Automatic annotation (TrEMBL), chain A:
<feature type="domain" description="D-isomer specific 2-hydroxyacid dehydrogenase NAD-binding">
    <location>
        <begin position="123"/>
        <end position="301"/>
    </location>
</feature>
<dbReference type="GO" id="GO:0030267">
    <property type="term" value="F:glyoxylate reductase (NADPH) activity"/>
</dbReference>
<dbReference type="GO" id="GO:0051287">
    <property type="term" value="F:NAD binding"/>
</dbReference>
<dbReference type="InterPro" id="IPR036291">
    <property type="entry name" value="NAD(P)-bd_dom_sf"/>
</dbReference>
<keyword id="KW-0560">Oxidoreductase</keyword>
<dbReference type="Pfam" id="PF00389">
    <property type="entry name" value="2-Hacid_dh"/>
</dbReference>
<protein>
    <recommendedName>
        <fullName>Glyoxylate reductase/hydroxypyruvate reductase</fullName>
    </recommendedName>
</protein>
<comment type="similarity">
    <text>Belongs to the D-isomer specific 2-hydroxyacid dehydrogenase family.</text>
</comment>
<dbReference type="InterPro" id="IPR029752">
    <property type="entry name" value="D-isomer_DH_CS1"/>
</dbReference>
TrEMBL record, chain B:
<dbReference type="GO" id="GO:0016616">
    <property type="term" value="F:oxidoreductase activity, acting on the CH-OH group of donors, NAD or NADP as acceptor"/>
</dbReference>
<dbReference type="InterPro" id="IPR029752">
    <property type="entry name" value="D-isomer_DH_CS1"/>
</dbReference>
<dbReference type="Pfam" id="PF00389">
    <property type="entry name" value="2-Hacid_dh"/>
</dbReference>
<keyword id="KW-0560">Oxidoreductase</keyword>
<comment type="similarity">
    <text>Belongs to the D-isomer specific 2-hydroxyacid dehydrogenase family.</text>
</comment>
<feature type="domain" description="D-isomer specific 2-hydroxyacid dehydrogenase NAD-binding">
    <location>
        <begin position="122"/>
        <end position="301"/>
    </location>
</feature>
<feature type="domain" description="D-isomer specific 2-hydroxyacid dehydrogenase catalytic">
    <location>
        <begin position="29"/>
        <end position="332"/>
    </location>
</feature>
<dbReference type="GO" id="GO:0051287">
    <property type="term" value="F:NAD binding"/>
</dbReference>
<dbReference type="InterPro" id="IPR050223">
    <property type="entry name" value="D-isomer_2-hydroxyacid_DH"/>
</dbReference>
Length: 335, 335
């Protein structure tokens, strides 16, 4: 009898954290929810909607994971004590940063936790596309297969040229991995990297046009901003080699999807591998789903047990730093 | 007045026997012109139709995907045969002692093979870890609208890779894996030099058991011999972690397939990725084709434009050296 009130009080002391839900299709993983509960009094959207007035006051933080919950004006107005939105993931293009800032709420992301997994995914897609892994796996299990044709070939990755567009944390890790495949690495970035950094991975800074014309594989690793929207359109696709492959691990909207469909159909480029599209998922009748020289994956760039945990931990550390008035490791500001 | 006898250009060149040109297991059309510069190409069909005239012309055989089959009958019918060149590095389909007893030399193509096969190994490792093929089906399937938040793979960066067979292919895998910050363990008949180990940060496991119980990914890269037949069986799989992945890029018969089916069904290991099976292809009702946690690819190994080209070039180099009585770049002797 004596212990229970203490437990309840301890929970009430913890700051209120809003999450979409626990488990299921859109909820936070059970193990992550347990992690969050160590530091916060976790409140689900369902609980908030059942009693907006009372519950709304308790919420000081929101944990946004896989873009949920959606942060709109209505939600922000119902949370008078909200101090910070901790996003799980590095991209914050789904958040209206200006609007959120007007409410005096801070936004943080998780740049460190995502880098390795996303770089790994970029490499996975490049190799899978080059070696026709998905097509091959279908042939291997198809009921119609009775032999493996000798003239069914992919393209070589070792010693090919990789053009990295966006050489931030993730892009640089891609370069580190690609170097081990003896790839020639070109990169384009808003800012040039230091000479040491370039030499460490054997990367050459290039103008966009040169990169597009010379690369066998073009990998997009930029964040989505008004400047990078439709960065790769008809012109850029036309500059690429007809034997080249486009890989996108950034955001769907960085590519003009209609131009991409046309380029793939006309064999302007050889193939594409996309972990991201616009929207996600694509409508079921979208032409990209029918092309056999496209690999699409359902935005699984950071979908590993370890990465999702690291992202939650990074988000927790960021949110707690805001509540404790300490320096914030990864705050994001409106442009 | 001297009349120059008309010598048909084709007759000057040594006869090279191949299985067929194009088709299921034939020499690639793209390579024919190059081969015809050095040899008079004779297909098995042409040979069998006209054994009497053709048999003396054949000085070399170029095996493409293990064909034509080299047996006693064929060897006896080729009195002037000097060399058999194999496309690829595995020689398990050849009776080396039998061939040698006819005074015929043999060569494989190790240089061209190692990078492409190492790339295939990494492609399979990444695809399996990140559930790429499953993810593709989710992304394009008409029924699936959402990707579940609990669709998770396992991390590659920082994981432990156990390489069984550290020849030239195994070593190239280690070089690639190092760039993913993987911890590398290896097991081999002979230990590598200290410098070689240090260059890739690889730890030698004298006992295969030590490798099996520590590795998150077990990659099998051995040649098929009586000693490596069913090297990975029930006992070995039970030593592996239940979260581990088995990747086979050597020969199907190195893995006990029945034991593998049981291990995958009962969760003894997490998943498998097989570029090779026994037989190839598997019968269409084989249980491996139905398991969700298996990726099977149609012996991608060296199937790229560049690698296949290099293999033919390597074979030609070996054949020309043998015919000229010079040392061969990659001669293979019976053990």
């Amino acid at each position: 009898m004596g212990q229970r009130p203490i437990y309840v009080m301890a929970e009430q002391d913890l700051p209120g954290l809003l999450i979409m839900g626990i488990g299921g299709t859109h909820g936070v993983q059970e193990s992550l929810a347990a992690l969050l509960k160590k530091h916060f009094s976790v409140i689900t959207m369902k609980e908030l909607l059942e009693n907006k007035k009372e519950v709304g006051k308790k919420i000081q933080c929101i944990f946004v994971s896989e873009f949920r919950p959606t942060i709109d004006q209505e939600l922000l107005e119902s949370l008078p004590n909200l101090k910070v939105i901790g996003n799980s993931g590095v991209g914050v293009d789904h958040l209206n940063l200006k609007m959120i800032s007007n409410f005096g709420v801070r936004v943080t992301n998780t740049p460190h936790a995502v880098a390795d997994s996303t770089a790994d995914m970029g490499m996975a897609l490049m190799l899978a596309s080059a070696r026709r892994l998905v097509e091959g796996s279908q042939i291997a299990v198809s009921p119609d297969t009775n032999y493996f044709a000798a003239d069914w070939l992919g393209v070589e990755v070792t010693r090919a040229t990789l053009g990295i567009i966006g050489m931030g944390r993730i892009g640089y890790k891609v370069a580190q991995r690609a170097r081990a495949f003896e790839m020639k690495i070109l990169y384009h970035n808003r800012n040039r990297r230091s000479q040491e950094e370039e030499q460490a991975v054997g990367a050459c800074y290039s103008e966009m046009e040169d990169l597009l014309q010379q690369s066998d594989f073009v990998m997009l690793v930029v964040n989505l901003t008004p400047q990078t929207e439709k960065l790769i359109g008809k012109k850029e696709l036309g500059l690429m080699k007809p034997t080249a492959t486009l890989i996108n691990i950034s955001r769907g909207a960085v590519i003009d999807q209609d131009a991409l469909v046309e380029a793939l159909q006309n064999k302007t480029i050889k193939a594409a591998a996309l972990d991201v599209t616009y929207p996600e998922p694509l409508p079921r009748n979208h032409p990209l789903l029918k092309l056999n020289n496209v690999i699409i994956t359902p935005h699984i760039g950071t979908a590993t047990v370890q990465a999702t945990h690291m992202m939650a931990e990074e988000a927790i550390a960021n949110m707690l730093s805001v509540l404790n008035c300490q320096p914030i490791p990864s705050e994001v500001f409106p442009q | 007045m001297k009349v120059k006898p008309k010598i048909m250009k084709g007759e000057e060149l040594p006869g090279l026997l191949v299985n067929e040109i194009g088709g299921m297991h034939g020499i690639l059309h793209d390579h024919v012109e190059f081969l015809k510069k050095h040899f008079c190409l004779i297909t098995m069909k042409e040979f069998l139709e006209n054994k009497k005239n053709m048999s003396k012309k054949v000085q070399a055989v170029y095996l493409w995907w293990h064909k034509p089959v080299i047996d006693k009958d064929l060897l006896q019918s080729l009195p002037n045969l000097k060399v058999i060149a194999n496309s690829g590095v595995g020689m398990d389909h050849l009776d080396l002692k039998l061939v040698a007893s006819f005074g015929v030399k043999m060569a494989n193509a190790p240089c061209a093979v190692s990078s492409s096969t190492a790339d295939t190994g990494m492609a399979l490792l990444l695809a399996s870890a990140r559930r790429l093929v499953e993810g593709y089906h989710v992304a394009v399937s008409p029924g699936m609208e959402y990707c579940e938040a609990d669709f998770l793979g396992v991390e590659v960066t920082g994981a432990t890779l156990g390489i069984i067979g550290m020849g030239s292919i195994g070593y190239k895998i280690a070089l690639r894996a190092k760039a993913f910050e993987m911890k590398i363990l290896y097991h081999n008949r002979t230990r590598r030099k200290e410098q070689e180990e240090q260059a890739v940060g690889a730890l030698y496991c004298e006992k295969i058991d030590d490798l099996l119980c520590q590795a998150d990914f077990v990659m099998v890269v051995v040649s098929l011999t009586p000693q490596t037949h069913k090297l990975i069986g029930k006992r070995e799989m039970e030593l592996m972690k239940p979260t581990a992945t088995l990747i086979n890029i050597s020969r199907g018969a190195v893995v006990d397939q029945e034991a593998l089916v049981i291990a995958l069904r009962s969760g003894v290991i997490r998943a498998a990725a097989l570029d090779v099976t026994y037989p190839e292809p598997l019968p269409r009702d084989h249980p491996l084709l139905k398991l969700k946690n298996v990726i099977i690819t149609p012996h991608l190994g060296i199937k790229t434009d560049k690698a296949t080209r290099m293999i033919t070039e390597e074979a030609v180099e070996n054949i020309l050296a043998a015919l000229a009585g010079l040392p061969m770049p990659s001669e293979v002797h019976p053990s």
